[in-house]
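Morning - phosphoric acid mono(formamide)ester inputs below, output right after.
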Amino acid sequence: MKRDFLTVAEFTGSEIERLLTRAIALKAGEDRGALPLAGKSIGLFFEKPSTRTRVSFEVGIHQLGAQSLYLTTQEIQLNRGESIADTARVLSRYLHGLVLRTHAHSTIEEFAAHATIPVVNALSDRHHPCQSLADLMTVIEKKGRLKGVRLAYIGDGNNVANSLIEAAARVGMEVIVASPEGYEPDPEVLERSRTGAEGEIVLLRDPREAAAGADVLYTDVWVSMGQERETESRKVKFREYQVNSQLLRCARRDAVVLHCLPAHRGEEITDEIMDGPHSGVFDQAENRLHTAKALLEMLVR
Ligand code: CP
Ligand code: NVA
């Protein structure tokens, strides 16, 4: 039976922890040179741009011994009316895994429903589960544990926030979210995450209240890919939600600041925070590679 990774909810807390342990071992050099996916081919179909996700998957696939094929909307017949179902069926005859970045989450679900190979969500409008794996790996590196770590997410309740909340809840972290009215995380994700969660998930409006006593401050852009038309109104609504030195002072003295990147410096995060001693953002970006490899090792047969 093939296994997909469309949302974090498909993995249990202990599966996530096992995957992170493997990613940490891979980063430390364990099994370097081993080629567990030798002879395999993995397709990357991206409807949106990407720096970290594309490059980390392509490099990771190479390091595991497999071949990657980068496909965009312009290059395949999907653009000329071939159905998602037929595309998924055909690609399943050549490939051993499919990594998808799409606008609508339903596109990924449709691919997964018709593909006979594992499908990985590399970002949709609702979820970014691969990002959360790197986020949690970075929390382990910086804080030495996950359980009981207090994470404050400041800003838009977007795809990154949804997956992060879901992942953090599964491994026993406490999550405090501060977002403007109307920009909260997906209620379905919140409900699912609260079910059986050990740590609390709290929604607030005030970023300072959310940051108080936080071990981790996390933010993402105010305008995600596909929302460009809302840029001006979002910049106004999110003005108070910047991660800057003032906000950092509300958090614990040893707090780490994370951001999935790309950042809009001067909007949701300042240069001094991005480049300062509390920033973990570049380690976090590196960890996309190690977690992508651990994920593919687990899913691709
Ligand atoms: N964090 C992330 O997914 O970055 P890219 O859009 O560059 O892949
Ligand atoms: N929320 C952002 C994340 C980019 C990695 C977006 O969807 O554009």
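Note: The chain has twelve helices and nine strands.

O.
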